[in-house]
Design a protein that fits this description.
The chain has eleven helices and 14 strands. The chain has helices at 3-19, 52-57, 75-84, 108-116, 160-175, 186-192, 196-219, 253-256, 283-291, 331-343, 367-379, and strands spanning 28-34, 62-64, 67-68, 91-95, 98-103, 123-126, 136-138, 150-152, 179-184, 227-232, 257-258, 260-263, 271-273, 278-279. The strands form three sheets. It has an eight-stranded mixed β-sheet, sandwiched between helices. A hairpin with a 2-residue loop joins strand 4 and strand 5. The chain binds zinc ion (2 copies).
Length: 411
């Protein structure tokens, strides 16, 4: 299948997915930003030395191991980039008698409030109180102050992260905001101190606060099972060849590489993905996809690779439909699979993987799948699909009796 045909097929598939009204389970999105933690001290360390609780939680979510701030690795550019879904410098202005700085493009709170007609209480920003230095959302025509989030600003006394956590728990339980952004600043300050023990202590604390936040969400009668949480950083810190953990701000790998850990009912579980490359500017569009609002001025993409299906295929129906409806596993599928290996052509991909031909559930399509498929016919052995591509089967009752146009097909 040539590229053109393949993109037509993918377009049909997307239309099909949309037309069958496969709405997402997610009703709430919570973004948590941990300021300036290097990936080697977070989920980039498989043993979870400094993030033991988040590392445990990875069995319930999807870790993107190739997530970056590839633009400017400082907080004042990167945090607004996560809001706007693009990088663009803040602008100075005078607002309500104060000198302030604001976003030049709409933020995801504004997109959500416009697109979903949300009251302010349903879009929240929890951050320490930086007073008039607090970066503001946009004044963009059609968006702007009427659509800003409600700000929850604990005073900057004592432990900032703890104060933000307490505020966040209160507002989540009380208001059940549809879209929340929770900013935990302390790890960055600790890193700048140059005191490794202090830096690590703040990471351990952030780890426990984020895990506790997830527990709070899962204990809430409304938000449990319907909330997607995405945890990220604005930037990393210098790798040891470029100045070490004390600083950040250049384009070294340590500064650019960040955590992107996502949990939710529509995402994969217990999986690490590392392609395609993700940006912190992709979070806004991904939140929009889940909740159903547009982010027209964002340059980011929807992080499709995080989504866990369900996918439109029947495991073992190797050639996918091919004129026979409803989809079924028949002898012709063995022939098709053997021919596939002979020609090694690239086809039948769903989400980048030939999922219907993985018979034995190892998320590979190799010779042993032929053997397994033959065993299915001979002795009734189970067909086990790939866990990373959960099939939408049995399909919903409202599927039309005949094959819908564009049902995935290998021909
Ligand atoms: Zn910093
Ligand atoms: Zn650096």
């Amino acid at each position: 299948m040539n590229i053109f045909k393949k993109s037509i097929a993918i377009a049909f598939l997307i239309l099909l997915m949309a037309s069958i009204a496969w709405s997402y389970e997610t009703e709430y999105v919570v973004v948590v930003l941990l300021d300036g933690i290097r990936y080697t001290e977070s989920l980039g360390d498989p043993s979870g030395t400094y993030c033991p609780l988040l590392t445990d939680l990875t069995s319930e979510g999807v870790v993107h191991d190739s997530a970056f701030n590839d633009v400017i690795t400082n907080t004042r550019n990167a945090v607004p980039a996560t809001w706007m879904g693009r990088f663009y410098s803040l602008q100075d202005t005078s607002y309500l008698g104060n000198d302030v700085q604001f976003c030049r493009y709409p933020t995801f709170w504004e997109y959500a409030r416009v697109g979903l007609s949300l009251p302010a209480s349903k879009a929240v920003y929890v951050t320490p109180d930086y007073g008039t230095s607090t970066w503001l959302p946009s004044f963009y025509p059609g968006y702007g102050p009427d659509y800003w989030p409600s700000f929850h600003h604990p005073e900057r006394i004592g432990d900032y992260n703890l104060a933000v956590f307490d505020s966040a728990v209160t507002v989540l339980k009380r208001d059940h905001p549809v879209i929340s952004y929770i900013y935990l600043p302390d790890s960055d300050h600790a890193g700048h101190s140059g005191d490794w023990e202090y830096y690590i202590a703040e990471i351990l604390q952030a780890d426990s606060l984020v895990a506790a936040l997830w527990d709070t969400i899962q204990a809430d009668p409304l938000m449990a099972g319907k909330t997607t949480m995405m945890v990220t950083n604005d930037h990393g810190r210098h790798d040891d060849d470029h100045g070490g953990f004390q600083g950040h701000g250049d384009d070294c790998f340590g500064c650019r590489h960040v955590m992107l850990f996502s949990l939710g009912p529509d995402f994969k579980r217990n999986v690490h993905v590392d392609s395609p490359r993700a940006s912190i500017a992709d979070i806004a569009a991904t939140a929009g996809e889940l909740l159903g609002f547009d982010t027209p001025y964002s340059t980011g993409r929807v992080l499709e690779e995080l989504f866990g299906g369900p996918y439109q295929y029947l495991p073992g129906d190797v050639n996918m439909y091919n004129g026979i409806w409803p989809p079924s596993v028949i002898g012709g599928d063995v022939t098709y699979l053997v021919n596939y290996f002979r020609s090694l052509s690239e086809r039948c991909l769903i989400g980048g993987f030939y999922s219907s031909a993985d018979i034995n559930g190892d998320c590979l399509v190799i010779g042993s799948d032929v053997t397994s498929l033959v065993q299915y016919f001979r002795v009734g052995a189970d067909i086990i699909g790939c866990r990373d591509y959960p099939p939408a089967w049995p399909v919903p009752d409202d599927l039309p009796p005949g094959a819908p146009e564009g049902w995935p097909n290998c021909e």
